């Protein structure tokens, strides 16, 4: 559903109309009103200008989920600046690459991360007045003495006025891709001359995934430096929501936060849904989740059995989208998915989808090929025209996924092309096998990969994380193989099943296949 009648759209309009409405609930329970947040955003915008930043410059941030993320995204978004948040788990080498490659002129770092970030900022030549220390908690709103070579974030804001800066201009977020096949590259979009506020594309996307404007509450618990969680957090401010910020909540913590704050909307990766469903029914029953009207998932495939059970539990409030850092593609609500199990929806407004074969020719409806889409907002890889050109065909981009479109225009995904297993000349899509294995009640997580085989080229292998108390032994492997044979063709059944304490995943919920080694075979093909 879209914005409700009579509601304000855009952070500035919401703050002016409802200055006393709670904008943020921080992880420690501290609250901040829209009026107070707007004052801090204005101070920050003035401070950045005072440091010499102007339209087109970049501000980077290495932060856990916190109020500072919201302030930085809003201030850069009304100053014509690029904002580049990145993982607070990065090493010094990774920080060095992002800061230098982005050309960041100001970098904000959490106080707990100075030892990691400091050498990187030294290498990038960031002076003390433009390397800012953020301290989480109520005390962070008060000026403090910074460590040598750094500037205190709160002190910088305290020196500037709370009045709106003149000549507001929309900024943009410049995020780095995951870098699974090399060093991360930034996705950069041209700045517009438009005033700050949500774009028609963003508003349409939110409407397609059931997120509406008004006095609602959104849980922001996924890492905000990722594309989707960051977008949902920013749109919470543009739509007038109260954003409840959580940093690395445990599985049951999600339910406690939903219950305590009467959460209306949230974004989660499928792994979170799976873990919630694996909680005992009596534990889930302790929490009231009836306030939820939009549980949005994306970033990784959701096994059909997990999605069905989630809809049975929560009601028809699940919304799915398919997207990449480079742009959004499609969306589907619960009714869409139940009518067409497995679909990731129809294209978003302004987005066109094509399915192409290896030679770039369109394939017929129902036939599998590479998924290409024309982004609603054009982009280029920062400082890498060659990569931009390689990823495109006639203006259509691919993230490397395989899929098909049915006769009615609904998109379905098979898997990433690089993850495809070819065994005896036959294609095996890991996501299909994973969906069967994860439906077994004793499987907590799973990743399916291909390993070299002298006879077949590749064989199907599964890395399984069993539920607590379930031994990862030959007997369990035999039960899983029998389970697969009941749902899959013989050539798709894993020939190798290995048990691990955990399946490696990124914070975005994607399997880190490059970290998986099976049966001493070395790095798995396609990583």
Query: What is the name of the CATH topology of the largest domain?
Result: Rossmann fold
Contiguous uncertain segments of 5+ residues: 520-527
User: How many helices?
Assistant: 16
Classification by helices and strands:
alpha/beta
Query: Which percent bin holds the helix content?
Result: 25-40%
Compute the number of structural domains.
Answer: 3
State Rg: 23 Å
What does this structure look like?
With 527 residues, the protein is an alpha/beta fold. The chain has 3 domains: 147 residues, Rossmann fold (3-Layer(aba) Sandwich); 210 residues, ANL, N-terminal domain (Rossmann fold), CATH 3.40.50.12780; 96 residues, ANL, C-terminal domain (GMP Synthetase, Chain A, domain 3, 2-Layer Sandwich). The protein is 29% helix and 24% strand. It contains 16 helices and 29 strands. The strands form 6 sheets. Strands 2-1-12-11-13-14-15-16-17-24-23-19-18 form a 13-stranded mixed beta sheet, with helices on both faces. A 6-stranded parallel beta sheet has the order 7-6-5-3-4-8, sandwiched between helices. A hairpin with a 2-residue loop joins strand 25 and strand 26.
């Amino acid at each position: 559903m879209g914005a409700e009648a009579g509601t304000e759209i855009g952070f500035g309009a919401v703050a002016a109309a409802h200055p006393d409405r709670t904008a943020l609930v921080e992880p420690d329970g501290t609250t901040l009103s829209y009026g107070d947040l707007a004052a801090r955003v204005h101070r920050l915008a003035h401070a950045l200008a005072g440091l010499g930043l102007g339209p087109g410059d970049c501000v980077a941030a290495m932060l856990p989920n916190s109020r500072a993320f919201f302030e930085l995204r809003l201030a850069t978004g009304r100053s014509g600046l690029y904002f580049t948040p990145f993982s607070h788990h990065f090493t010094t080498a990774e920080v060095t690459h992002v800061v230098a490659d982005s050309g960041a002129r100001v970098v904000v770092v959490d106080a707990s991360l100075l030892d990691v970030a400091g050498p990187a900022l030294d290498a990038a030549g960031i002076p003390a007045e433009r390397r800012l220390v953020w301290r989480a908690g109520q005390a962070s709103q008060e000026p403090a003495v910074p460590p040598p070579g750094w500037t205190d974030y709160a002190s910088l804001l305290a020196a500037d006025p709370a009045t709106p800066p003149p000549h507001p201009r929309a900024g943009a977020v410049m995020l780095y891709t995951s870098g699974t096949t090399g060093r991360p590259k930034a996705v950069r979009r041209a700045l517009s001359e438009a005033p700050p506020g949500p774009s028609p594309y963003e508003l349409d996307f939110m409407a397609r995934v059931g997120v509406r404007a008004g006095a609602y509450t959104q849980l922001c618990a996924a890492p905000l430096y990722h594309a989707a969680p960051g977008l949902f957090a920013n749109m919470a401010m543009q739509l007038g929501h109260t954003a409840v910020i959580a940093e690395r909540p445990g599985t049951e913590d999600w339910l406690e936060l939903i219950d305590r704050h009467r959460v209306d909307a949230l974004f989660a990766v499928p792994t979170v849904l799976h873990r919630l469903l694996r909680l005992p029914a009596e534990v889930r029953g302790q929490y009231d989740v009836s306030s939820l009207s939009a549980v949005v998932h994306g970033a990784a495939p959701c096994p059909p059995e997990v999605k069905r059970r989630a809809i049975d539990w929560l009601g028809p409030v699940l919304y799915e989208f398919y997207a990449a850092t480079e742009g959004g593609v499609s969306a589907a609500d619960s009714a869409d998915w139940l009518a067409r199990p497995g679909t990731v929806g129809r294209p978003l407004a302004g987005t066109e989808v094509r399915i192409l074969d290896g030679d770039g020719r369109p394939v017929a409806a129902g036939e599998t090929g590479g998924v290409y889409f024309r982004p609603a907002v054009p982009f280029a890889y920062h400082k890498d025209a060659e990569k931009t050109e390689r990823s495109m065909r006639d203006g259509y981009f691919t993230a490397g996924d395989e899929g098909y479109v049915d006769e009615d225009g609904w998109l379905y995904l098979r898997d990433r092309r690089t993850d495809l297993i070819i065994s005896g000349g036959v294609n095996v899509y890991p996501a299909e096998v994973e969906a069967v294995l994860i439906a077994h009640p004793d499987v907590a997580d799973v990743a399916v990969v291909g390993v070299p085989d002298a006879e077949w080229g590749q064989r199907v292998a599964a890395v399984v994380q069993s539920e607590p108390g379930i031994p990862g032994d030959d007997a369990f492997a035999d039960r899983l193989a029998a389970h697969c044979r009941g749902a899959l063709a013989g050539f798709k059944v894993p020939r190798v099943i290995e048990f691990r304490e955990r399946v490696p995943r990124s914070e975005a919920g994607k399997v880190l296949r490059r970290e998986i080694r099976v049966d001493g075979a070395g790095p798995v093909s396609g990583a």
